[in-house]
Amino acid sequence: MILTVDGPSGTGKSTVSKAVAARVGIPYLDTGAFYRAATLAALRSGVDLADEAAVFEVVAVARLDQSDGLMTLDGDDINDEIRGDAVTKAVSQLSALPRVRELLVDLQRIWVEKRGSRAVVEGRDIGSIVFPDADVRVYLDARPEVRALRRAVQVGADLEETIDDLNRRDRADSTRAASPLAVPEGAHVLDTSDLSFEEVVEAVVGLLDAKSSTSG
Prior knowledge:
Blueprint: E1 2-6, H1 13-24, E2 28-30, H2 31-45, H3 52-61, E3 64-67, E4 70-73, E5 76-77, H4 85-95, H5 98-114, E6 119-123, H6 126-130, E7 136-141, H7 144-155, H8 159-175, E8 188-191, H9 197-215
Parallel strand pairs: 1-6, 1-7, 2-6, 7-8
Antiparallel strand pairs: 3-4, 4-5
Helix pairs in contact: 1-9, 2-4, 3-5, 7-8
């Protein structure tokens, strides 16, 4: 059973995905953390993020892994560092590099395969590119002002700055040539603007239950 959860920032993807995974008892994978870890590796190396070949060489030899929601780079816990400003401002640029995306997609598929192909996988191209044949595909969305407020509260940032940052990230994610953010074909679109956290979790778990009942 593979559940993919896609959508822009501020829609509750991470918190909902973690809760659903815990509820149904299967692993959770935050693919965005892989991109952030790869970005950190590139920044540490000092390569130009516009040089795709150089970035690819750095990421290809980096040991990226995720366990129990914790991201590691070459065995070191980098969970806090990849949420910092430097990585946040640079991750969209790295994410737009086709060869690097292909490499990270392969790592994500291997991660899920090692866990018996049972996982809740969250990101921006999961149901469309990484696991297009997933059992259940969900796309979370919310009104822009709701997303900005949630994000600002989550990271403790200024609301206006958060709005600018989300707009920048949305443009980068939806217009990049490689795997742009889009609603996956056949995905269940869920607007979380006026729903509580528990209501969203219940809705997603309901989709899984419905799929299980029709499959089994």
